Amino acid sequence: MLIRKPSLFDGSAIPSSELTPKDRFLNRRRFLQGATASAASLAAAALAANRLLNVADPAQNVLAAGNLDTQRGSLTTHGEELTSFEHITTFNNFYEFGPDKYQPAKNAGVLPTRPWAIHVSGLVHKPRTFDIDALLKLHPLEDRVYRHRCVEGWSMVIPWVGYSLSELIKQCNPLSTAKYVQFLSYYDPKVTTWASQTTLPFPYAEGLRMDEAMNPLTLLTVGLYGDVLPKQNGAPVRVMIPWKYGFKSPKSVVAIRFLDKQPETTWNKINPDIYGFYSNVYPALQHPRWNQKMERRIGMPFWAQKRTSMIFNGYSDFVGHMYSGMDMNRNF
What we know:
By secondary structure, the protein is α+β, with helices and mostly antiparallel strands. The protein folds into two domains: about 20-55, no CATH class; about 70-325, Alpha-Beta Complex (Sulfite Oxidase, Chain A, domain 2). About 20% of the residues lie in helices and about 20% in strands. Strands 1, 4, 5, 8, 9, 10, 12 and 13 form an eight-stranded mixed sheet that branches. It has a five-stranded mixed sheet with strand order 3-2-11-6-7. A hairpin with a 5-residue loop joins strand 2 (about 115-120) and strand 3. Helix 1 packs antiparallel against helix 2. The protein is globular, with a radius of gyration of 20 Å. The chain starts with 19 loop residues before the first helix and ends in a 13-residue tail after the last helix. About 40% of the residues are buried.
């Protein structure tokens, strides 16, 4: 396994703030900014850097800067080359800001991330509303490197920042009758105007079984590469479930509901024959649209992109027990 268990953590994980690919990428911006001393030239350099990123005007704060105070996470994937900051932030699925993978980086600057709150309701003893800044202080932030696998066949290795979703769930004290958790993403037709280019129903909804939500790998995610989440990556808070396909990772979460019945999820609702509720990475499943046995690693040289997919995306030692006895061809 390429993931370290907490009891085996030896301090060798590198905090995301110390990882080099982002620095190499940002050096282009520093070079441009240092090219001239005049204010006008500095402004032009900043704009040029953002054109390299193919994102919106810097005044819209698409790439919000500011190092997060993190600690080394014990639950982290080792031994794989990180996907560059540039690829992570310019190749995205975020349909509220356009159906093309390069549109969110251009359009997400209009997403308002302050003020921001997550409303927790349903079968809980303590319905809560968490302000985003309070959420950042709820538990120490960890650097965790996870594989990210998309159902279309592409993959990345991303250094996320966050903490286990279970820490937030514990604060709400769910009732014993709560069996599922539903997540709703931000949607405002006056802001997310690009959503009209799709046939998806909004707001975007996703869901997990309670044991999946409580699994320590399920990450309440607030940053990547040591900084706050860029808007096109789901700022200011998203959920990352590394053993599932990427569409199971709701972005820009505004509501969490605890339910006793399996909730509707966006992709499962519109096409249940292709998008199952569980959506685990299960290469043996004969998917009607995509070859799940292979994947293509974004940002790698062409000859090194293709690789064999792993069951549960390589995290079976941590999550396989939750699906023991289930027919994965039916509960896909």
